[in-house]
Design a protein that fits this description.
- The chain has about 160 residues and is mainly beta.
- It is built from 1 helix and 11 strands, in the order αβββββββββββ.
- It has 2 domains: about 5-40, no CATH class; about 80-159, OB fold (Dihydrolipoamide Acetyltransferase, E2P) (Beta Barrel), CATH 2.40.50.100.
- The chain has one helix spanning about 5-20; strands at about 20-25, 30-35, 45, 80-85, 90-95, 110, 115-120, 125-130, 135-140, 145, 150-159.
- The longest helix is centred in the N-terminal third of the chain and has 14 residues, at about 5-20.
C-alpha cells in the first residue's frame, strides 16, 4: 500500500474531523501515524486479522427533503435520558462480527468504559466505549448503517 499526498491530506482531514486522537497505519513498505492535539476521546481501534474487501465509495447524494414533523399527543418524553453519540463518521455495528452477540441490548445496564458498539471508518474498527452509566432504553441506529459525527446512537436512562 502506498498513498499519494492527496490521500494523506484526506486522511489527516478525516482524523481531525473524527475526534480520534491518533491513527497509525503500518504496512510492509509503508507506515504513517497521525496525531491530533484534541482532548482524548474514549475510542480504541482494533485491526481485524482478515482485512475485509475494499468497499466501493459511494458518491455523496443530496439529502432527502425533510418530511414535516408530526406531533402526536403520546410523544415519548426522552428529556430525562442521556444520549451516546457517534464520535466519528463511519458504519455502525452492534457486535464485533455477524456471528457474535450484540455488545448491548435494550434493558442492559452499562457502566463507564463498557464497549457499546463499533464504528468502522476507513477499514479501522473503533470500539465505542460509554462515557456514562445507566440502562439502555433505545437503540437509535440499525446494524451496519452509516452514521455521522455526533449522531445519537443510544438513549440511556442514567443511574
Amino acid at each position: 500500500m502506498s498513498m499519494d499526498i492527496k490521500q494523506i491530506q484526506d486522511l489527516i482531514k478525516f482524523v481531525a474531523k473524527s475526534g480520534v486522537n491518533e491513527v497509525a497505519i503500518e504496512e510492509e513498505d509503508f507506515k504513517i501515524t497521525i496525531k491530533t492535539n484534541q482532548v482524548p476521546t474514549y475510542v480504541t481501534a482494533t485491526v481485524p486479522t482478515a482485512a475485509p474487501a475494499p468497499l466501493p465509495v459511494a458518491a455523496p447524494t443530496a439529502p432527502a427533503p425533510e418530511a414535516p414533523k408530526q406531533t402526536t399527543p403520546k410523544a415519548e418524553d426522552t428529556s430525562n435520558y442521556l444520549t451516546i453519540k457517534s464520535p466519528m463518521i463511519g458504519t455502525f455495528y452492534r457486535s464485533s462480527s455477524p456471528d457474535k452477540p450484540a455488545f448491548v441490548n435494550v434493558g442492559d445496564e452499562i457502566t463507564t468504559g463498557k464497549v457499546v458498539c463499533i464504528v468502522e471508518a476507513m477499514k479501522l474498527f473503533n470500539e465505542i466505549e460509554s462515557e456514562i452509566s445507566g440502562k439502555i432504553v433505545k437503540i437509535l441506529v440499525d446494524d451496519a448503517q452509516p452514521v455521522e459525527y455526533d449522531q445519537p446512537l443510544f438513549l440511556v436512562e442514567p443511574k
